[in-house]
Amino acid sequence: MTIKIPKWIYVWCLLMGLLPLGFVAVGYFNPGYFGVEWVTGDMSRLGGVYGNYVARNMASALIMFFALWQRSASMLIVALLMRIFSDIFDTAHNAIAGTLDIQYIIEASILVVGSSIAIYYLWGFRKS
Q1: Would you state the pLDDT for residue 18?
Q2: CB 61, CB 79: distance < 8 Å
Q3: What's the average model confidence in pLDDT over 78-85?
Q4: H-run or E-run covering 120
Q5: Between 39 and 64, whose confidence is greater?
Q6: d(CA 53, CA 10)
Q7: Which of 82, 104, 76 lies closest to 8 in space, CA to CA?
Q8: How does DSSP assign 20-41, residue by residue?
């Protein structure tokens, strides 16, 4: 049985899958864009915090795309929760590190609130 999930939720989830892929591409090909020079001339920059950032964003994008492909409300909820927690932890990490600016707070807030609204609506579409 296929559950009819509203199109706006699919669009939001697609955006939540494409944004991390964009961040990975920008961070990988132009690491200075994020304000930190990770370039060392070899692939050793993929270790540590930078590598975790790339891997986490790539994983969250793939999980979101898989949930979209499955058209499962429960899987979309889990994928959105992962994205919410990831954004909250990034915000907390940047606050502790002293690198948090207002633009990042606004972006993270929009993503968290939008994902929370989608989860609220998806909760009603889950199978009992």
Answers
A1: 93
A2: no
A3: 92
A4: helix 102-123
A5: 64
A6: 25
A7: 76
A8: HHHHHHHHHH-GGGGTS----S
Say what the pTM is.
0.79
- Name residue, tokens 């899987």: 75
Asked if residue 31 lies in contact with residue 37, where contact means CB atoms within 8 angstroms, the answer is: yes
* Both tokens assigned to 122: 């998806």
pLDDT per residue as tens digits for the range 54-75: 788 888 899 999 999 998 888 9
Q: Please compute the mean of the pLDDT values over residues 19-41 and round it to a whole number.
A: 69
* Gap between the Cα atoms of 38 and 60, Å rounded: 22
To 10 degrees, the CA torsion angle through 106, 6, 85, 89? -20
All structural domains of the chain, each given as residue ranges with its CATH number in brackets, are 7-123 (1.20.1440)
What's the CA gap between 9 and 72, in Å, rounded? 12
Q: Which of 118, 20, 29, 12 is nearest to 63 (CA)?
A: 20
Q: How far apart are the first and last CA of the chain?
A: 13
How many alpha carbons fall within 13 Å on the CB side of residue 36?
A: 9
| Strand ranges for the chain from DSSP E | none
Percent of the chain with pLDDT over 90: 31
